[in-house]
C-alpha cells in the first residue's frame, strides 16, 4: 500500500459519502455527519479554491441536506446528475416509464419480504437488505430479472447490503473525469476516497489520470492506498485541513 498525501497542495479531492464520510446505518436516512468533519470540508474547499467534490450514489439534494450549510460541487446518482462549482447542474435523462415499471415490481417484492427497503432514486431504484441479509440472493435475482428486457439501457450495480438498478454507462469514474476537465479541478492531481464496489470505477479512472485512490475499509480493491474506517477518514481530513496552504 502506498502512503496517503499529507498536503492538499495541488490536489483535487473527491469523496464518496456513505461508508466514507459517514458510517453506514440500518437505513439511508439515519446517517450522521459530525460537525468537525463539516468544518474540515469547509476549510479544504476554501483552501483548494473549491476543488473538492462529493461523488455519491445518492441524489445531490440528499448530499446537500447532510452537508448543510455547505454547498459543494457534487455528482449524484453515480454521475446521473453533476453540479459544478458555479452551480450549473447537468442531468442525464432516462426512460422514466421503464423505471416506474421496475419500481412497481420491486415495491411489491419488498412489501412481501420483511426487512427489505426500497429506495426510489428517480432515475433508478435501490433495494437494501441490510436488515434481512438472508434475502441477498433473491434481491439480486429480482434485479437481474427486472432489467432483462431493458438491458441496453439499465444495469445492475451491487453494493454493501444493497442492489441498485441504474442507467447503463453512468459511473463515478466518468463523473470524476468530467470534473477534471473544468475549473477549479483541471490541472490538479485527483484524489478519490471510496469504500464500495461502486467506487472501483472511480479508482480505475484515477489510475488513468495518474491520481491517487484510497480504499476505505476492508475488501479487495485496485486502489493503492487504504484507510481502515470512516473515523480514519475524518482524522486524515482534519490533518489535511490543519496543514492546508491557502488557495491562490
UniProtKB/TrEMBL annotation:
Names of the cofactor(s): Mg(2+)
Keyword annotations of the record: Hydrolase, Magnesium, Metal-binding
Entry-linked InterPro entries: HAD-like_sf (IPR036412), HAD-SF_hydro_IIB (IPR006379), HAD_sf (IPR023214), OTSB-like (IPR044651), Trehalose_PPase (IPR003337)
Pathway field: Glycan biosynthesis; trehalose biosynthesis
Highest taxon above the source species: Bacteria
Keyword set includes Amino-acid biosynthesis: no
Biological processes annotated in GO: trehalose biosynthetic process
SUPFAM superfamilies from the UniProt entry: HAD-like (SSF56784)
Keyword Hydrolase: yes
Catalysed transformations (reactions): alpha,alpha-trehalose 6-phosphate + H2O = alpha,alpha-trehalose + phosphate
Pfam families: Trehalose_PPase
GO molecular function, one term: trehalose-phosphatase activity
Protein EC: 3.1.3.12
Protein family according to the UniProt entry: Belongs to the trehalose phosphatase family.
PANTHER family: TREHALOSE 6-PHOSPHATE PHOSPHATASE
Reported function: Removes the phosphate from trehalose 6-phosphate to produce free trehalose.
Protein name, as recorded: Trehalose 6-phosphate phosphatase
Source organism of the structure: Pigmentiphaga litoralis
